[in-house]
Every structure is written in structure tokens, then in C-alpha cells.
Design brief:
single chain, alpha+beta, rod-shaped
């Protein structure tokens, strides 16, 4: 004989409710994590584009250190051989690098300053214009 005390199936219902609650909690957590991914990718691309812009400034400064007369060159007066960074996007060297940069240079001869503005781009995301640098003689400042 079986005893009836009115609790048949209560354990099964309790376990099923716990499973439903845990499943809902897992789905909510997964949804929260997935919503943050696009913003993280944008931030990563933005920071990489800023680094690419800095690479453009470094490229110009390197060329200026190699040739003191490099200040005379710009998009309208390109050097020979031509520097792609004046007129288009120049790839950053390296096999795994997706970054590009371009820059413009303004020679403020009356003040003895060359102003360089560089912009970086990574995976199609253009970051902010990078640092604007002014070079005078043997010193360089960037803002």
C-alpha cells in the first residue's frame, strides 16, 4: 500500500522551476555579453586608428630627419619618388597590420614651423585626426 500525503510530484515541479530560472538567467547573461561586443569592437578600432595616425606623424618626422628640405613637400608639391601619404592612404608596414594613415603638412616658413596633421584608419574605421605636430629646428611638439 502507498501512503498519500499530498506531496506527489512536488519535487519534480520544484526542479523544473529551478531549471527554468537558471535558463532565463543564462539567456539574460549571454544577451548582455553579446550587446557589449559591437561597442568593444568600435573602441578597439578607434584606438587602433589613433595609433595609425601617430604612425603617420612618426613617418613624416622620420622623412624630415632624413632630409632637411622635406618641409617643402606637400600634396600639391610631392617629393620624388612620390609619398602616398600626402595624397591617399598609406599602409602601415607589417604582415598582420590593417592600419593606414595619411597626413598633410603645412610649412609656416615665417615662423619656422612645419605643422603636420595625420589621420589613421583601421578596418574602415577612421579615428580622430591624430596629433598635430609642429617641428622647429631640432625640436618637435605634438598636441
Amino acid at each position: 500500500m502507498r501512503r498519500r500525503n499530498g506531496q506527489e510530484g512536488v519535487a519534480m515541479i520544484t526542479i523544473m522551476m529551478i531549471v527554468v530560472v537558471l535558463t532565463l538567467l543564462m539567456v539574460a547573461t549571454l544577451n548582455y555579453a553579446m550587446q557589449g561586443e559591437p561597442q568593444s569592437r568600435r573602441d578597439q578600432n578607434w584606438n587602433a586608428a589613433l595609433a595609425a595616425a601617430q604612425a603617420g606623424v612618426d613617418d613624416y618626422l622620420y622623412r624630415l630627419q632624413q632630409d632637411d628640405e622635406y618641409v617643402q613637400y606637400s600634396a600639391t608639391n610631392p617629393p620624388t619618388p612620390a609619398n602616398v601619404a600626402f595624397t591617399g592612404w598609406m599602409d602601415i608596414p607589417g604582415a598582420a597590420n590593417e592600419g593606414e594613415f595619411h597626413y598633410s603638412a603645412t610649412n609656416l616658413a615665417s615662423q619656422g614651423i612645419v605643422q603636420v596633421t595625420s589621420t589613421g584608419r583601421v578596418r574602415g574605421c577612421s579615428g580622430p585626426s591624430g596629433p598635430t605636430c609642429a617641428a622647429r629646428g631640432s625640436w618637435t611638439t605634438c598636441t
